[in-house]
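Project standup — Tuesday

K.O.: blocked on the structure for the chain from last sprint. Re-posting the sequence here as requested.
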Amino acid sequence: MSQFIELEIQNLLNETSDLDEVSVRLIQTLESNSEEWTSNNITSLSQFLVNAGKFHLLIEFVLAHVEEENFAIPWAYFLEALGHSTLQLDEKTVKSLLEGIEESKAKSEASRALSMNEKLPQLGEWRSHRKYKIHREYRNNKDSLLDQLITLRTQQLYEQEKSLLIRLQKLYPGDDEILHEVREDRQRRALDILARHSPKTRPLQAEDFIPRDPEVEKVLEALLESLYEHAESEPEMAFDFAVAAFMLEAYPESLQILNFCEPTESYLWFRLEVLLKCRRFVELLAEITQVEVLLSHEPETFFATAYLRAQALWGLGNKHMAIEVMEGVLASRPHYRAGGALLSIWSTQ
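H.V.: unblocked you, prediction finished:
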């Protein structure tokens, strides 16, 4: 609702609780204010009149101005008011309504009126077209944002990637594909590991020969020891402590702390990721099989495990089979972007 109409309604309601009086005075205020005679304000006024059940006032308002060139007919609310009125619409009137909608190119807007389905059956077809268009725009916009996500990921712009993931969750709450992207976000960071940290492909850097600050090492060692002790005494918090160790890139310690955790679904997926980080590929392959049995009821399980299995095979040097596994995933899910990005990296090595 426009700010002008909303403020006028608030002021009028402060003076009187009579909706008839409020509605009439609101119409008069808009009609007498040429600067506020806009499509947005007319639509907002119409919305208020329909919500207030003042259908006759809206019909009279529209009919009083319908011939004016600068009057934008609020078709959805006008038709809704007609549908709730006692007016009998003859064939000529219905034809005029249809012609007006056609001339205004307002089929999509008019289709929002639900009370006129019997009198204007064309609304059903227009409504279906509007829903299809909305769904197509929804899909195209989501695909565009997901493509941006892949671009950010391949460019290793992790902070921007994280921000875009948050935005996607807000725009498409509950969307399975977005939730899958979020859940797999940590695993997909393995792409960076393959590109930069693998001992088989990573060139030696000068910092490899520079020892860490002993004081930093002491603090880190004490912190990890504390995490382990707390996990042992408070197993219900062990998973959080394991994640904390993981964030410190202390992957072997994170794996040790996981021994105190209950085997929940989150635990199972996180343990696979930690095994990957630890480069314990043989164990990873064995546990992937177990997870596939335990979580076979989840439709995404086999695609996620195939992604991990391919990385484990690649880590073991079985590059041909790793590529075959990933190609199999992409054959079933051609839009599985992480798999496509990983396969692209592998093809250059």
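K.O.: great, moving the ticket to review. Residues 122-154 form the longest helix (33 residues). The two ends are 57 Å apart (CA to CA).
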